[in-house]
Amino acid sequence: MNFNIQAVTAALILSLGLVETVQANYIEALSETFESGATFNGIVTFDNNFDALAVSGTLSGYALGTAGYVGGSANESISWVFDPTFDYATAPLASNFLLDADPASYDATINNSLVFTIDFTNASAPVFTSNAFDNGINSGSSNWDALVSGTVTAVPEPALFWLFASGIPYISWVGRRKTTA
């Protein structure tokens, strides 16, 4: 077996391993509007079992009044998943809590907890479930702000694009090489 065949075989095996790694997670953009007028926009990463692993987003346009959530101008970073190793629903449903503070820190005060349940039955087009108590904001007390509308949109995997794009110059180089007899 000559060097070119070995190199192509090694590159193919490596790329197949990388493609499997790249496809290990679902990265979804969540856009939610709640009864009070508050909105959440962020990115949530899920594993193959639909467990939420990470979140990065902002809850905005709310205020916590005496009777619960009301319209306002507060903005808060949502960057914690309550328990990334546990899903409160059975696949293909994903259910967890997105928080504004680290739940493991004893001195952290969790002001807002976004509750969500997403149906991944059609993994290419997941949707929020329709049960009003599956999706909303909770302040940790009896205050509840239900989801009015929301979308779940897949975020393209830049690593997958990079993997395929990086192979194009190699294929071009192999195709242009002249073999000597």
Task: Describe it.
Helices cover 22% and strands 41% of the residues. It has 2 helices and 10 strands. Strands 1, 2, 3, 4, 5, 6, 7, 8, 9 and 10 form a 10-stranded antiparallel β-sheet that branches. Strand 1 (26-34) and strand 2 (39-46) form a beta hairpin.
Task: Give the gist of this structure.
By secondary structure, the chain is an alpha+beta fold.
Distance between the termini: 17 Å
Backbone structural class: alpha+beta
**Helix and strand pattern:** HEEEEEEEEEEH
Overall number of strands? 10
Instruction: Report the β-strand fraction as a percent range.
Output: 35-45%
Q: Quick one: biggest sheet?
A: 10 strands, antiparallel
Sequence stretches where pLDDT stays below 50 over 5 or more residues: 18-24
Number of helices: 2
* Rg measurement, Å: 22 Å
List the helices and strands and how they pair.
Blueprint: H1 3-22, E1 26-34, E2 39-46, E3 52-65, E4 68-78, E5 80-81, E6 93-99, E7 113-119, E8 127-128, E9 136-138, E10 144-154, H2 158-176
Antiparallel strand pairs: 1-2, 1-10, 2-3, 3-4, 5-6, 6-7, 7-8, 7-9, 9-10
Key terms:
181 residues; alpha+beta; ten-stranded antiparallel sheet; 2 helices; 10 strands; 22% helix; elongated
